[in-house]
Amino acid sequence: MDSFEIDDTSVPNKLVILDLNGNKINADGCRQIAKLLRRENATLKELHLGHNQIDDEGISILANALQTNTSLKKMNVYNNEQITMEGMKLLLKLVNDISSIKATLQSNHTLHSMSFPESFESALMFETEIVREIKQIFRMNEYPWNNPNRTGKRKVILTQLDSKKRAKMCGLQGLGDDTKSPYTELGPLLLPEALEIVGKRHGLSEFYESFRVRVADLWTTVNRKKVVQQRRDEISKQTEALAKEKKELDTELELIEQDEMDNMR
């Protein structure tokens, strides 16, 4: 099956399992599958795409569609060896976008099972670090309460508010060192509660680290405020000086014009 097109109006309303293993599906095919995943009342729970020709572009298409999908629980992409680390980063970001607290809360909290290409996971119990991290997030998604809101908050606590874990996740997702601290997103009303959670969940050392980072953020803000105030004052002085000079020039111009009129009489 080199190419196909899905008419989502003719798809069964209660389609639960779709097996497309071994059909030479590529990025174009993924675009058609994405139609099913984006359906308003999607019911698909399992999607089997093993032994195809899916690459990073195909993974990107599927990941984008799954951003808003809340039905799919299992997806298999094994033996799609064109998928590289870039595609794996997209899958990790799908279930836990570490770029911000808001992004983490808006990640996919439903998908909890996946078979990966052999270059990242094999039957010999070999699995790469990124696969281990994805599976850890899957376990959160599969947690008994199965409540997306609670799962999102749990991800924030376990990954965003743990500096070591967050640094690791940033590295795996290709985010640089200049990524903002999650504490910059927390207002003064939420900060005490967040620090209390950090202390209880991750220990005093992490609490002190979080407090230090937050103080540094506040100090940076204070310093920036001072710089802005100084620059504003400088501009005010320059404006006053220019206004004074303009007034003097206006006066001189009036005198020149008066002399010209006197000479014409």
UniProtKB/TrEMBL annotation:
InterPro entries, per database record: Leu-rich_rpt (IPR001611), LRR_dom_sf (IPR032675), RanGap (IPR027038)
Entry's Gene Ontology BP terms: nucleocytoplasmic transport
Pfam assignment, any one: LRR_6
The keyword Acetylation is assigned to this record: no
Coiled-coil zones: 228-259
Alphabetically ordered keywords of this record: Coiled coil, GTPase activation, Leucine-rich repeat, Repeat
Molecular function GO terms recorded: GTPase activator activity; small GTPase binding
Cellular component terms per the entry's GO annotation: cytosol; nucleus; perinuclear region of cytoplasm
Keyword Coiled coil in annotation: yes
Protein name: Leucine-rich repeat protein
Source organism (scientific name): Skeletonema marinoi
Lineage: Eukaryota, Sar, Stramenopiles, Ochrophyta, Bacillariophyta
